[in-house]
Amino acid sequence: MHLVVDANIVIAALVKDSTTRKLLLSEKFELAAPQFLFEELEKHVSEISKKAKVGKIELNKLILHMQKTSKITIYESGGFRGLMKEAQKISPDKNDSQYFALALHLNCQIWSNDKEMKNQDKVGIFNTKEILELY
Questions:
Q1: pTM of the model
Q2: Which of 6, 21, 26, 46 is a Cys-bridge partner for 13, taking CB atoms 3.0 to 4.6 Å apart?
Q3: pLDDT tens across 60-71, in order?
Q4: Number of other residues whose CB lies within 10 A of the CB of residue 15
């Protein structure tokens, strides 16, 4: 299954060894994310490090390692820039527009636990519980 993965999913996987982490690493999914994902992770490093109970330096190393070795295919915004206006119209939160634009570009759904994202009808949104139910 091809999915665009939202930052809250990656953050959940970084915070603890959980079902989310296992699903994120599963071969069952072809995952994609905009480069913006890493900007969001950087913005929340302090919060993530507290929740994960690891230092900021260690967390930054982990994020850098993930960026280099992740199974998540990272897309530069230039590849889907033409869909940003449409994505901004449908995204309930303008900060999530890049995820919607990439999903439109790839013609796939988004994996996110952000309930607000479901407040539109153009792009399918699956939360982790729904992903588990599918598999």
A1: 0.89
A2: 21
A3: 887 777 767 678
A4: 19
